[in-house]
Amino acid sequence: MGIDISQIEKMLIGDQDWAFTVEIVFRTLVMYLIVLLSLRTLGKRGVKQLSVFEMVVIISLGSAAGDPMFYKEVGLLSAFVVFTVVVVAYKLTAYLVGKHPKVEALLEGTCTCLIEEGKFSVHNFRKESMAQDEFFSELRLKGISHLGQVELAIIETSGSISVFYYSDQDVKYGLPILPSLYGQQIVEIPSKDYWSCSFCGHTELLEPAAAHNCPVCQHQHWVRSIASQRIT
Known about the structure:
The protein is of the alpha+beta class.
């Protein structure tokens, strides 16, 4: 059975002719330059600094750039018009965000305090989509081993986490976030020591007891607290 050259050719270039391949190169270079110019117009913020509406702009530009590169029926001028409208809309939105705080809060959101004085702000934490394991991982990457080292932790509108530490002399007993220690949760308090609620991080000196309800969140699972200083 011989090789069907026409089928291989169709698989490679579809319904277009080979001449259109050269045009694709030109179209791609033009769209590449338009994308660079548009992003340069948007500013110098990094990806992690992008707000929600800025991410929408980037996605819109990417979508508008793709089709003209390899669809003959999509003209470059149409794509240029789309880019112009998106960039102008972004500039207008950025102006409104800068002038009106309510618009800024609506589009970009507000920062949220997740840890205050070594304990979870449970009410605020429930507002965020971040899971506890993910949050603990972010803290461990910053060299934190327990919540007693943290005075304040805030999730910014960009999604990054800002942490303000206690000084070494002010570090107190707190909930350990190292997996090997956090996994040792118990209900019965076996000995007098500092214990932390595994749910909210509330820490107190407890006497031996069959069970003890956390006075903050009413949960009953506890982890032995640690008070080690942060290693930097």
